[in-house]
Amino acid sequence: MNPTVVRLAFSSLLGRARSLGLLALPLVLLAVCLLARLAGGEPQSSDGTLGRAVLSGLGLAVVVPLLALLVAAQLLGNEMDDGTIAYLLSKPIPRWHIVVSKLVAAITTTLLLGAVSMALASLILDHTDPGKALGWAVGAAVASVAYSALFLALSSMTKHSVVWGLMYLLVWEGALATLLEGISWLSIRSWSTRIAGWAGDMSVISADSAPLGYAWVASGVVLVAGTVWAAYRLRGLSITGDD
């Protein structure tokens, strides 16, 4: 990891006005939970029907992956698209240092905006059980790490990473997940939900969910594989940033 690259990555994320749009996603999640709480009048269990629909169906399925996708695209995809990645490639810095540094910035940003907002959303629904809020935060943290690595690798492969990322979320983790039970074994959302249920001692898992150990291992594999692939792709780029 290179501290200078990390600093530049955070500057890229926080120094642009359009980055404020990232805040809209967690704010929407919190607003939905607040409306649900006000409409119900009493605390809503975060592992009940409503809590599962909001925190898993909206938080883990939409907010966290979209945050990771937008952050990864801005940190690497946009730089490869406009050619500014050539500035880093021209420096005597190993390519894997660049990837790891950007991954650290991506994970940190997604964690702060995603995992923290998931914990707050759970507390809004039911402030009497902080253990469940911690569980959702842990699940969101695992999802943040895995999605960041996946979308960073995707950003290293194509200039249209946002489009392909959205297709992955809509088709694979969305439509197909509702039709094919086996998708849960290859779904980051399913793994993170399984881990959230374990961490918060909640009954949010379905009968076809992958085992807990598999969920941890699979998330780690995505992290390592995504990082290695992104570094490999950067090694294949010329100094001008051409594919």
From TrEMBL:
User: Any keyword Transport?
Assistant: no
| GO CC terms, sorted | plasma membrane
Which residue spans traverse the membrane? Answer: 57-77, 98-121, 133-154, 166-188, 212-232
Q: Domain of life here?
A: Bacteria
UniProt entry keywords in alphabetical sequence: Membrane, Transmembrane, Transmembrane helix
Molecular function in Gene Ontology: ABC-type transporter activity
From the Swiss-Prot or TrEMBL record, give the protein name. ABC transporter permease subunit
